[in-house]
Amino acid sequence: MNNLSAIPPNFENKAMTIQQQKQFDAERLISRKDTAALIGLSERTIDRKDRAGELPARIVIDRSVFYRYAEILAWIESHRVVS
User: Fold this and answer.
1) Residue ranges in the chain whose pLDDT is less than 70
2) Number of separate domains in the chain
């Protein structure tokens, strides 16, 4: 299941308000694979950065690793280089 296209609970075919979308994004989890794709790094580099404490806190469910989407976006923004 791809969490990027997940539908929020209690979705009743109504458009979400901006506040509801922000809340949903803040709680959304993305896989290690999706995180790597979003950042533009390999999964191995994601693992290395995670072990070094260079990424936001991971969430482990069973044996799968996830990150909070909003925290990854904030991390990307804080590491953006403006030329």
Assistant:
1) 1-16, 22, 25-26
2) 1
Q: Would you state the pLDDT for residue 27? A: 79
Q: Is the pTM of this model over 0.85?
A: no
The CATH number covering residue 67 comes to 1.10.10
**pLDDT at res. 12:** 56
Give the integer Cα–Cα distance in Å for 35 and 66: 8
Residue 75: domain span: 27-83
Q: DSSP letters of the chain? A: --GGGPPPTT--S-PPPHHHHHHHHHH-EEEHHHHHHHHT--HHHHHHHHHTT-SPPPEEETTEEEEEHHHHHHHHHHT----
Task: Establish if 5 belongs to a structural domain.
Answer: no
